[in-house]
Amino acid sequence: MRYGAAGSAAVRTGGPVLEMRRAVRGYGTGDARVTALDGVDLSLDAGSWTAVMGPSGSGKSTLLHCAAGLDTLDSGQAVLLGEDLSGADDKRLTRLRRGTVGFVFQNFNLVASLTAEQNVALPLRLAGREVRREDARRALAAVGLADRARHRPREMSGGQQQRVAIARAMVTQPKVLFADEPTGALDSTSARTVLGLLRNMADSTGQTIVMVTHDPSAAAAADAVVFLADGRVIDRMEQPSAHRVADRLASLEV
């Protein structure tokens, strides 16, 4: 695995996996209303790893949630894998999330009473798919945790728990992996390990990754960075470096 090197070696399919068109999402009413997304236009190609950055309150997590079908837009479109999410009912959205999308969150969201192996197998059970022990163990082995299959979350470090969460997200072989601050709760060593795993997925399998982060070093592991401010996409950086990302982010926070 390698960390901090941009530019996936995977072959691009050439088509967008995610498109957002004039996307608007707000919360509250009247004078208390906050516009989290204000006419976002965004297109991400299949096989790309894109980091989403911006100041606090810029709309990063809202963008991720609306793009993944976890939240709905007030107006505009979010088209994921050719599916217009605004026109999909709850059943279709659930099927899409369980069948073609993977999620990794900052706080891992593992089930405390289940072992690592059982946590990894959970998405397969929820999707009504065949659950084979070897599939869960293969996913754990891929993140370097073959020897932790029978351990519960409380028996593992934060970095190990996040690697279990990645294995859980990947066991269904999703076409898109959404990651919301996946290194935010980790120490620097664990963060490098997690980012190395994601980089390896992007390079070796062409995994599409959309990652929200506040960390320039994490963003530098991606192929490109999209910057938000006040709910709008204001810039995009190809082949990012931690220094360039930090400078651009600082200019947004002035």
From TrEMBL:
Alphabetized UniProt keyword annotations: ATP-binding, Nucleotide-binding, Transport
Database matches in SMART domains: AAA
Chain ranges passing through the membrane: none
Pfam families (UniProt xref): ABC_tran
Domain ABC transporter: 18-253
Matches recorded under Gene3D superfamilies: P-loop containing nucleotide triphosphate hydrolases
InterPro entries given in the database record: AAA+_ATPase, ABC_transporter-like_ATP-bd, ABC_transporter-like_CS, ABC_transpr_LolD-like, MacB-like_ATP-bd, P-loop_NTPase
GO molecular function (one): ATP binding
Protein's name according to its UniProt entry: ABC transporter ATP-binding protein
Protein species of origin: Yinghuangia aomiensis
